[in-house]
Write a structure and sequence with these properties.
Rossmann fold; 5-stranded parallel sheet; alpha/beta; 2 domains; 40% helix
Amino acid sequence: MDGNFSRVGTEVYSPHMGFEKFAARFTQSFDEVRIAARSFPVDRAIGTRVTGERTSFLDLGANRGVAALLTGIPRLVARVSRTVADADVLLIRFPGNIALLAMLICRWRGKRFSTEIVADPADYFSDAASRHPLRRIARAVHCWATRYAATHAETVRYVTDYTLQLAYPAHHMRSVFGFSDVYLPDSMFDQREERAKDPQDSFGIVNVAMMHNESKGHTVLIYAIARLRARGLNVHATLIGDGLLREKFVREAEQAGVAGAVHFAGSMGGDEVRAAVARHALFVLPSFQEGMPRAMLEAMALGVPVIATKVGGIAEVLELKELVAPGDVAGLCDRIERIVKDPAFRRNEAQRHRSIAQRFRFSTLQSHYLTYCAELKARSLT
């Protein structure tokens, strides 16, 4: 798989795929779980350890970008080939460069595989979400690969109920599943974390997203903050996350005149993120691309109302009438302004969103995982 994995010494960490959140869901059904992915060395761990009981991490290197992947392709092919050959049940998560390579090796070797589709590469590599000069080639390649995987895998799991299924339909003879992999412990619904009250004349907005490209709409949110403040609303935003474009977004906030109203908090671990989100009055996700966004569902479970765009599986969770078109700064401002000015509406939205998030609680999703894993095992033996 491709994922946000970081390495400190010999340990591998992830902000959203730590052992409890990901591998532990499979160890209830399998004797051993091995995660094969790239990891990138860092000075400080973000998130939690990926490994745990009966779970190991197979490091595929630290190649980032097309050039690095091409120069390291011989070693990468060898490592992925060994991983493919050794697996009893092979699960490949799409889209991604590693996923594409693993699938091609499977087809070459005649190895059966199952797939999980977690995002739409057509959105990820769209002109609005990416400025990479090869984005249109990447979009064509990864859309083809994801479609091919959906029609040739033994089982296909989507993180949506129907959105990704419509874009990348599975072969009618395949076993198909549709449920999120968000990690919302049942305890999150037992007690609402106490949110610090905003000063009477100030309103706190929070966003959680990586900053590797334009796909999460950071620029849109920065411009919206500037417009809202120009209307006389004293809003401020906390942007949690990091990536290659962070400095670009910092400069945009300065140019828009809101450097003092937009706080770049950097990356945080899961518990830190939840505590920070709970201290804010509103969660905003102005993305151009999503599968089923974990951060949004976590905010909803915490009792923080959310505003999001009509992309990916978000429309399966929130009503169409409350979603904003991606890139629509004016529409986003209007939606935020209503939440800011109408406390009763804000409280109702928070309660309604929290109720919706109940269907993503851990115990509910884990029952889906157990059925899913049983089918993965059955398909590997037939």
